[in-house]
Amino acid sequence: MFSDVSLLDVRMGATLLCELGLFLLCTLLCTGHAQDAVLTIEPNWSSFFTGEFVTFKCDMNERKDTDWYYQIKKDGREFLAYRANKDSKLEIISTHDSGEYQCSGRRKISNDTKNSNTVSVTVLDKPRVTLTAGTTIIPVGGSVTLTCSVQSSDGWKYEWFRRTQRTSEVQIRDQQNRDIRVSQGGIYSCRGTRGNPVYYTDISDDVTIEITFSNKVVVKQQPNWPQIFRGETITLTCEVQEGGETTEWEYEWRGPRTPTQWTHNNDVTFRVSESSSGDYMCKSRRRDDSYSSTEWSEAFTLSGSNQPKAQITSDMRDVPVGGNMTLKCSVNPLSSSGWKYYCVSQEGLYRCRGGRGNPVYYTEYSDPFNTDKNVAVSSPLFLVLMITGLIFGVIFILLLFLFLYTKVYKKKGSPDDQRVSHDENQQQVYSSLLHGDRSVYETIRGSGNTQNGTVSTLIYSLWKLCNYKITVIITKNNTNIIILV
User: Fold this and answer.
1) H helix intervals, 365-438
2) pTM over 0.70
């Protein structure tokens, strides 16, 4: 009994399984014409760009592919009419090709149809390519990573290019990755490629990689004056230090009024104005490698001041009679380097100004200095010198006269014959000069001696001129000694 019941149960279970299987098979057969076709696209990217190609593949999953006709629908409407080929390759023309695509199959012998699943296609305009660099300046021996990215990254390969100012653009071989690492200076660019036939994006913007040398660069000023004035002409020089003397360099300037292009000249000359005040920097690069350069120099600050005014001063307040004074022309001590001075005078007025540089830059003229306003006085030193000069002049004349007188006296007879007359005459003159009872002129004329009269006239004239008392003493050897009191 247990065995019969058990066998009956087994048979009933098998029957139920068969019925369930038949039900499922019927369900599949009855509804399969609307569900079992499959649509795929190649390449299977999330988005496409105008100008690319897409292939629609429609698979009926029943019988042979040649037993069917194939149709492509877009957004529920016919896009491609029925055709014998299951694959349809299309070029994407515009963004309007975006939409929901589906394929349908129609059996050739029975006209039975099947509809596939839907596939969404997104179409974008020309893709945007971006090239970025970790840094654009690297030291000698260093490297930097460049990254090329496209708006949609599915399936992209990359082409890399490098050029210089002296060479044309060339492709970097064996580089198709999104990231590359470079250690050479130059101008880099990239673009993306994908698909078959190959689709190319536009070329990216350029990125310039520069290699920096360790040489230090400084800006120097010539003339090297502590203060510069507007209107002066100066020269700024870019000097490469630390062993750069054997290298041929080019130079670039950065400043308010300097060229920004590279030049073989390491200096710039200009006239200082208000607009030229500011910071100046320079850097250098090798002439044989346009993208290997030094770093920028430290900023050199130029500040142009207003035109200075000269000053004129004197070494004394008053000028002595017959004396002179020294006038001094000067410019502000902070800017005194390199000045030469130019003075002009007119009717007792003196002015001066300073000039320096090439071409010459002039200061304003000083205020006029009037010498007429100075008081002429007789200083004690000047009086002493004047009196001393007069005394020595008188002594010289008297000595000369006495010398001539002695010569004439010796030519007249013996000394014994003339001694009395001579003594009397000299005594007469001597007495008149001492007592003053008559005028000196009258005493001299009354002597009656021609030679002694000449001597007396000269003495009188000297006495009148100098207003001194004159005493003449005749010694035994007929030598005259003149004392001025």
Assistant:
1) 380-410, 415-435
2) no
